[in-house]
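Per your request, structure below.
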């Protein structure tokens, strides 16, 4: 039955509609879903009938990222190629979205994590609904913020992106709007109006601005000076030192933040910081670098251990290897960035794809 599919597609007038449909799995992305999104975006890019695309989700969560349980099973079975295929096609879809010229509106109501950002952030409009929550929590599962995280996170205000990448701190709508991660904040009960506007070819920018509601002040904005002070440091060790040196009104926040960092994979922390600090010419080059790093993480003990502790046994007590920051050498970090034997990830450009 069509309603049982992992992702649903239909057209309403001038709008192409994609609906994530794995509510029982928090709409975690599978290869089937990524392929469906890619196929339909290319189809809708070619179609003179389609004015714009709408992405939405069934259930309480918008998208919890990639399906980590499936990834864990693939790695345990020794099927690394299946995991690499998913990453290749996921990263290609990020690049396709960056090059997609029609209105592309994501209606984000509920949790959006990790790979969920990859199917939203490169569109033209990201609309936060009432239940919006966003985070990039990958260092807590022995991985790193990918899907272009090394490109868009450093471009946020000050050093806030580094803070988000290393700690996995969750953003509400006010924080995300302040940072530009979402373009509008609109009550969820008005999402149907947005679909109808796209369907009727109504210019989407002024329409969304009319529906936008001020989400209020961002609590994160008030923390930017202290975040910038701590997370501008050149190493994880120095970030921790600066956090531990804070006193007065920021002491409790600093202690809690340091505790979070100490619970994360030391290897993930150091690789993530290097990724974010490396210059990026484009999203395309960032995705190619991330693919090199991700392919090495598929062989690491920390990724399996992080998924086990978070989603399988749920004991929240991962045993990281190495377990100490000082045991993660610069040579160890550098090995994750080395060129792959079969060359860079190839990403097709949009004008090639839609000819």
């Amino acid at each position: 039955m069509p309603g049982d599919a992992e992702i649903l597609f239909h057209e309403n007038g001038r709008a192409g509609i994609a609906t994530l449909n794995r509510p029982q799995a928090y709409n975690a992305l599978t290869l089937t879903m990524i392929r469906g999104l890619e196929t339909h975006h290319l189809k809708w890019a070619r179609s003179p009938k389609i004015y714009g695309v709408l992405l939405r989700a069934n259930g309480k969560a918008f998208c919890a990222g990639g399906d980590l349980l499936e990834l864990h099973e693939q790695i345990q079975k020794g099927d690394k190629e299946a995991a690499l295929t998913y990453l290749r096609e996921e990263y290609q879809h990020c690049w396709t979205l960056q090059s997609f010229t029609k209105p592309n509106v994501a209606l984000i109501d509920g949790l959006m994590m990790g790979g969920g950002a990859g199917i939203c952030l490169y569109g033209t409009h990201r609309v936060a609904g009432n239940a919006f929550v966003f985070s990039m929590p990958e260092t807590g599962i022995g991985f790193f913020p990918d899907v272009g995280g090394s490109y868009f996170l450093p471009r946020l205000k000050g050093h806030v992106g580094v803070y988000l990448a290393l700690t996995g701190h969750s953003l509400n709508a006010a924080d995300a709007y302040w940072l530009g991660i979402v373009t509008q904040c609109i009550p969820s009960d008005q999402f149907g109006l947005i679909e109808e506007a796209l369907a009727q070819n109504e210019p989407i920018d002024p329409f969304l601005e009319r529906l936008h509601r001020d989400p209020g002040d961002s609590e994160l904005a008030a923390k930017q000076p202290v975040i910038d002070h701590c997370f501008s440091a050149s190493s994880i060790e120095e970030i921790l030192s600066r956090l531990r040196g804070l006193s007065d009104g920021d002491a409790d926040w600093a202690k809690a933040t340091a505790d979070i960092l100490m619970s994360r994979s030391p290897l993930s922390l150091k690789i993530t910081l290097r990724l974010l600090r490396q210059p990026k010419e484009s999203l395309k080059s960032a995705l190619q670098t991330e693919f090199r790093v991700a392919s090495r993480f598929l062989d690491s003990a920390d990724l399996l251990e992080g998924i086990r502790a978070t989603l399988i046994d749920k004991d929240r007590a991962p045993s990281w290897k190495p377990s100490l920051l000082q045991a993660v050498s610069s040579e160890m970090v550098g090995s994750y960035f080395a060129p792959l034997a079969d060359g860079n990830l190839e990403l097709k450009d949009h004008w090639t794809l839609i000819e």
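The beta strands are 7-12, 15-20, 52-57, 104-108, 111-113, 125-128, 133-135, 184-185.

Regards,
D.
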